[in-house]
Design a protein that fits this description.
The protein is an alpha+beta fold and 221 residues long. The protein contains five helices and twelve strands. It has two domains: 116 residues, Luciferase, Domain 3 (Luciferase, domain 3, Roll), CATH 2.30.38.10; 100 residues, GMP Synthetase, Chain A, domain 3 (2-Layer Sandwich), CATH 3.30.300. Helix content is 19%, strand content 30%. β8 and β9 form a beta hairpin.
């Protein structure tokens, strides 16, 4: 963001939406753009954050982004069906509310911050960690071309953070590089977000739309 602004004089404004929706949130004009934030909800949507128990998440608490329409099960700007998959459609629209499956938290200024898919949240040592934040730090290391952070079973913490990394062609997939990347990230993250394991791979499993398949990575962990 800063580099783009320096080179072009233009300001990037992040937003958030899904294939199933239009723009749900953004750093709208008239407000300061905050780097890394999803922004604030569009006035066309009633958006809430809810925990696994269905109750609203507190400020700073990670919850699922849901759309609560005026009329249960119907919302302008949201899709009306999945092709040949009515069961999935009913699942995301359960209880008359659209469940995005995405995790975020809201800060004290009403801005939302993305934390990845709700089912990808890692529970470690009594804390909940969104992989997105850790992945962003990983991508700052010059050796990292692609990465994905997952939770793996850990006898002490319940889950430990594991980073699956595609390194640059000029880097050797060595223990020395793994230690360097660990130290790089752990110096920039709170201790409960530290990476405990690193695996180097030549490519990531992906969907046809190019998204990394964390479920596949977890099944091989």
């Amino acid at each position: 963001f800063r580099k783009f602004r320096e080179l072009t004089g233009l300001e990037l404004r992040e937003g958030y939406g899904q294939t199933e929706t239009t723009l749900l949130m953004a750093n709208f004009k008239g407000y300061d753009a905050v780097e890394g934030s999803m922004g604030t909800p569009s006035p066309f949507y009633n958006i809430e954050l809810r925990g696994k128990n269905g109750k609203p998440a507190a400020i700073g608490e990670i919850g699922e982004v849901v759309i609560v329409p005026e009329k249960a099960g119907r919302q302008p700007g949201v899709f009306t069906a999945y092709l040949d998959n009515e069961d999935q459609y009913r699942y995301v629209w359960r209880d008359g509310v659209y469940h995005t499956g995405d995790a975020a938290y809201m800060d004290e200024n009403g801005r939302y911050w993305f934390h990845g898919r709700f089912d990808d949240i890692i529970k470690t040592g009594g804390f909940r960690v969104g992989p997105y934040e850790v992945e962003n730090v990983l991508m700052e290391h010059p050796a990292v071309v692609e990465c994905s952070v997952i939770g793996v079973p850990d006898s002490l913490r319940g889950q430990a953070l594991k980073a699956v990394i595609v390194p640059g062609a000029e880097y050797n997939s060595s223990q020395e590089l793994a230690l360097e990347i660990k130290n790089f990230c752990n110096q920039r993250l709170a201790e409960y977000k530290w990476i405990r394991l690193i695996e180097f791979v030549t490519e990531m499993p992906k969907t046809i739309s190019g998204k990394i398949q964390k479920t596949v990575l977890r099944s091989h962990a």
